[in-house]
Input
Amino acid sequence: MMEEVKEVTPTLSVQGHNIKVAEVLRDGDTLTFLIISQKLSGTGEYHVDRTYDDFEWLQQHLFSQEDVPGIQGVIFPPLPVKPQVNTSAKVMKQLGFLGLGEWQPYCKALETFLRQIAAHSILNKNKAVEIFLTSSDPPGRQRVRKNIFNRLSQAVEEMRKEGHKDVDEFFQTERDHNLVLTGCAKSAAERFLDVVLTEQKIAVACGHFSAALHLCMEPGEDPDKQAFSKACVKLSEVFDSMRKNMTSVAENNVNTLGLGLDLESRYQEAEKEMLFRRTCKLVELESARRNAERAKPVKKAAMEEVKRATETEFDHICGVAKQEIARFQGARVEMLQQALVQWCEKQLLTAKDNADQFNQHLQALRGMA
Output
């Protein structure tokens, strides 16, 4: 149960930066992910298989650390939305880049999620992380769903607090910036996904045209027909090369900048959630102060105690939040920079290979003239 895994351990027994989601297996409508972690001692590896239920179990334990001071100021690494094998248009829109490529981008996103948790100085101390990465038994069956729905209902009730003016200029500015960046990041990811989907359609069209050109070939000894048939074969090869190139370009886009933009978008949402939690606590604090001021003598001491406890909790949240924002701003620049550099490197290699291929086709066509 929840209480059993809240013990704090000093470190993980695995190398956090080497965690890999190596494989995804499909059993009916369920996807199972094989996770490999290097032992910190260097003496071997942990191999565990986890479903999405297990990932939700881990996330829920990280959310539920009420005994950790300032936990609500943490920008929690964002867990991707649940994968569905038979993806509808609506689900595809939610998954975005993560629904492409036989679930390989999704595995990469889960890998990043686990590495971010393992690298987090607060979250990696939760025993649930160690259990998730090393235990042979799937922990997901122990999930406490009720807690999740309680939190959701609370969030709905508190949505009206989102526009509450902040008393701290730093956080008000951060909230304003985050609001803009969340929209921009989501829009950039969606538009880049449109580019990739168009590239995939072009690749399919090139493949169809390449196959259709073979239907134009004419049998017989007539020299003109033979020349025409050779030209059709050569053009078919050209369009097949175009298909392969466009497929590679689309894959490069997904695996580099696509994943980078997706992660940026989900992390902006995660920061937005953290800022909202802090705003809710601010509203609670202001209410506690008013209640303490208005309290009758018989209740004055109790109300003052509530106010002091809320102030302490709010201060903890603000302290953690400022550290998290500073860390996040540095990390997001590094993540996007890495995605852009990888994107350029991959596309340059693909363009070079494509140029060499087209040069060979050009020489072959010239030889036919």
The chain is about 65% helix and 5% strand. The helical segments are 52-63, 89-95, 104-119, 127-134, 145-158, 169-215, 223-294, 297-368.
